[in-house]
Amino acid sequence: MGGTGAGGARRGRRYDPERRTRILDAALDVIAEHGTAGTTHRTIAARADVPLGSVTYHFASLADLLAQAFARYVELQSATFEKLFEDVATPEQFVEVVVDLVCGGPARHRSAVLGFELHLAALRDPGLRVLTQAWTWQSRAVLARFTGPDTAARLDALLEGMIMHALLAAEPESREATRAAIVQTLGPAHLEGDRHARARGI
Amino acid sequence: MGGTGAGGARRGRRYDPERRTRILDAALDVIAEHGTAGTTHRTIAARADVPLGSVTYHFASLADLLAQAFARYVELQSATFEKLFEDVATPEQFVEVVVDLVCGGPARHRSAVLGFELHLAALRDPGLRVLTQAWTWQSRAVLARFTGPDTAARLDALLEGMIMHALLAAEPESREATRAAIVQTLGPAHLEGDRHARARGI
Amino acid sequence: MGGTGAGGARRGRRYDPERRTRILDAALDVIAEHGTAGTTHRTIAARADVPLGSVTYHFASLADLLAQAFARYVELQSATFEKLFEDVATPEQFVEVVVDLVCGGPARHRSAVLGFELHLAALRDPGLRVLTQAWTWQSRAVLARFTGPDTAARLDALLEGMIMHALLAAEPESREATRAAIVQTLGPAHLEGDRHARARGI
Amino acid sequence: MGGTGAGGARRGRRYDPERRTRILDAALDVIAEHGTAGTTHRTIAARADVPLGSVTYHFASLADLLAQAFARYVELQSATFEKLFEDVATPEQFVEVVVDLVCGGPARHRSAVLGFELHLAALRDPGLRVLTQAWTWQSRAVLARFTGPDTAARLDALLEGMIMHALLAAEPESREATRAAIVQTLGPAHLEGDRHARARGI
DNA sequence: TATGAATGAGCATTCATTCAT
DNA sequence: GATGAATGAATGCTCATTCAT
């Protein structure tokens, strides 16, 4: 009916300091589920369990909201990425974490889809490229600590392609094949440890 | 406005046997320009210079039209891809053609964008995955003639990622860096010719 | 796609002298099923297993087609009505036939619905009133042979209302209640036979 | 044309608390005039002198709007019907009021047409039958106060048929003929007063 | 500050009808 | 004669955004 939208105990939610954040997270959920195109004020409001007016009140426009949602995604994702490699001590561990990144099933589905949605959106809206570029740099920087800058760039691209293929493939690639591709890209020197030693030295 | 839509001498254009194809090509243009989300019956009709009713007459739904447009894209793109490698005789030529693929500026922009739009669309609509899978297999098959199947799969993923990065990068990667990444993925044996010789033997 | 509509062995159906009639009958089917409003050239064509162009070719307009279909309905229905009472010899038989008319389950559903659709259509389109009036006169004439003209008119109206209620009622009225209402409307003299004897004398 | 739709000083009409009701009444006007089939969001909006978006804002779908309009009709009509018989004290008055119901010219035209439109609509949409059934029960209850339940049901059906015939007839039936039919259906006892006396006793 | 009523632009889709073949 | 491609006008509906409260 007329815009009532989400039901539930919304009464008394005034003074909700985290409302903005909650809307952004809801927006990311909706984007992951319905695509950027299927993301509307109304869907977001319903997902966040917030009145429609609240969404338009806190964000100047839908484009603005999406941009901020993607910014939040990059921020959260970067932190997650960073943390993934925090405890990596050996080249073998590094490879395993990277393999997990590609093979990591439905757990990583949401973030992978969001990543591609962001890339596509940035293709159309140059204003979003600061986000994709920041994200790329940050990813490469993390990887570079273990591989050096050139290999990091290559690995980053390879991962991008492999993750997309993994999302679309009828049946998942085997971990072994994935590992082989990664190891090959890292180059023969990687597992000999010297490069890794240098990385730890940084 | 008001239904007349596209201008031009459209009177008497009846019985246009290639209209369907023209609409599909127009749809691909529009997708490349405005994204799948921005692709509407009206935009397509204007681009194809046909009345709105003509677009809905020839295709049962917009989703159907998009699916057929993407199918046409895969078909055309596969043929183009095939032809690109037709005259490749040496490993060096192979590498150059692949580097062109990544660096190939605005000329390749349209088809690259369309490829990613298709990937994203397939992520949302499983019915489109027959297209992405067919396309992936075909690409790998072409590459595999020069690299063997495993390396082909890796190279394919790497190219996917590099092309996306190239599309989004503020300034294009140098051809040298691109070539280095590719050569590294092909493996040291590639340029020594034996692998290529084997490929030619197939 | 695009208007092909009905499938099947339509090839070679040229020179189909009954096509007009078949289209009209299909139209009546569609009206009964989807209502006058839901009746389109395309639905009719599909139902009649005839190309779309054939429907517009044989009838100047949809309104014209509907008018002719309703005319056919009145014609067929009048004949059926006539025949229903053909073998009625006693007042008791007369009452039973009339009760059947009201209680006659799904068998009579189609014709009853069509009757009301025609009434409603005639309310909007005065051109159709020649049909409803002819139908009313004919029905009354048949009934009057057993009841006299005044009672026939009353009975006709009563039947109209009872049939509509029967169509809409959650559970059907009992035959007994229906019979009682009819008998009461016929008047006490009816079953005494003298009136009926007079009717047979006509 | 082009979205502006109805003319008039509509600027500043915001916050119109009775808008919903006004739209429903406009819908009933339109149904009476153009039939359920000819009732569109746009016609209703024009009739209610509200923008198109307002109609779709307040009602989830056109079917929903029509259902609510018909519900309002039944409600209003039931009240009117009730009031018609409020001051009836004698059997003679009762008969006159009922005769008025059938013969009541253009004044009753709108409500009669709406009644039949509702019946037809309920034939197609079972969801509307709660309305027709409620309406039937209520009508019978009012009549039964003067006639007893069985006669009330018969009279209700007779009235339904007579009103439809009156709407479609080229020239109106005479009051006398109408009265005769009603009196005959009420049965000989009615005007003798005993039945009515019983009714008053309730 | 927060909200939901309000609105105009736009969209996918249907369809009666026209017309070249 | 018959057909199906073609078309423009409508239709139901969605939605970003504005704004009175």
UniProtKB/TrEMBL annotation, chains A, B, C, D:
Keyword DNA-binding in record: yes
SUPFAM superfamilies linked: Homeodomain-like (SSF46689), Tetracyclin repressor-like, C-terminal domain (SSF48498)
Domain of life: Bacteria
Keywords: DNA-binding
InterPro entries found in the cross-reference section: Homeodomain-like_sf, HTH-type_TetR-like_transc_reg, HTH_TetR, Tet_transcr_reg_TetR-rel_C_sf, TetR_C_31
Annotated GO MF terms: DNA-binding transcription factor activity; transcription cis-regulatory region binding
UniProt keyword Chloroplast present: no
Domain HTH tetR-type: 17-77
Protein name stated in the entry: TetR family transcriptional regulator
Organism: Nonomuraea aridisoli
Lineage, opening ranks: Bacteria, Bacillati, Actinomycetota, Actinomycetes, Streptosporangiales
